Amino acid sequence: MGRVSGKIALITGGASGLGRADALALAREGARVVITDVSEEAGRALAKDIDGEFVRHDVRSEDDWHKAIAHTLARFGKLDILVNNAGIVVPGDIETATLEQYRLLNAIHAEGSFLGCKYGIEAMKANPGSTGSIINISSLSAIRGFPGVITYAAAKGAILAMTTTIAAHFREKGYAMRCNAILPGMINTPLLAAVGADTLPGLGQPDDIANTVLFLASDESRHVSGAHIVVDNASSIIGGGA
């Protein structure tokens, strides 16, 4: 217990699915958690359960990012952990997906993560000697072909590239911060249900991702930066299944 004791975390899309599991895991291990989401009722209920904070937050909005960061700093005085988790999925292959869908998915996933990293870094730097950790939720679809979710895969690929670049930036600047990405495979969440894949055999559970988030959020991972951690029960290397 206490692996992230005294740390302050902000989790986007924290009201359900992977974000909810992340919030519960970090709070259980001693972090104070700020949950941000567009789902206010679920977000406020979870924040109350874990003695955390809730901020309504559309990750596409730069103003909302300013407000979420400002709330975190006003309430807790610092930011140690940022989990860029918010996202949606819209089914469609390259022939059926629309430009509007592509722009929407990239706005939420890629632009949302970009803004989170940009302003999260600013907040972490304000804490002298910060060993802040940014954890970007990418996807197995960023490195393995899933024809039916082209817009989602493109956005998650952008997050993967961004993570590598930010980690290199930290190294170049000498910042004692780190940036890593998690690539979930098939995990039993509402997102998976949205594309009708929640009944596949061998699905992972949200806690499988939350436990990885916990490791990257803790000082146990202080020498890990720029990593892309695949959590998929080996499906990406043997093919088939979840």
Automatic annotation (TrEMBL):
<protein>
    <submittedName>
        <fullName>SDR family oxidoreductase</fullName>
    </submittedName>
</protein>
<dbReference type="InterPro" id="IPR020904">
    <property type="entry name" value="Sc_DH/Rdtase_CS"/>
</dbReference>
<dbReference type="InterPro" id="IPR036291">
    <property type="entry name" value="NAD(P)-bd_dom_sf"/>
</dbReference>
<dbReference type="Pfam" id="PF13561">
    <property type="entry name" value="adh_short_C2"/>
</dbReference>
<dbReference type="InterPro" id="IPR002347">
    <property type="entry name" value="SDR_fam"/>
</dbReference>
<comment type="similarity">
    <text>Belongs to the short-chain dehydrogenases/reductases (SDR) family.</text>
</comment>
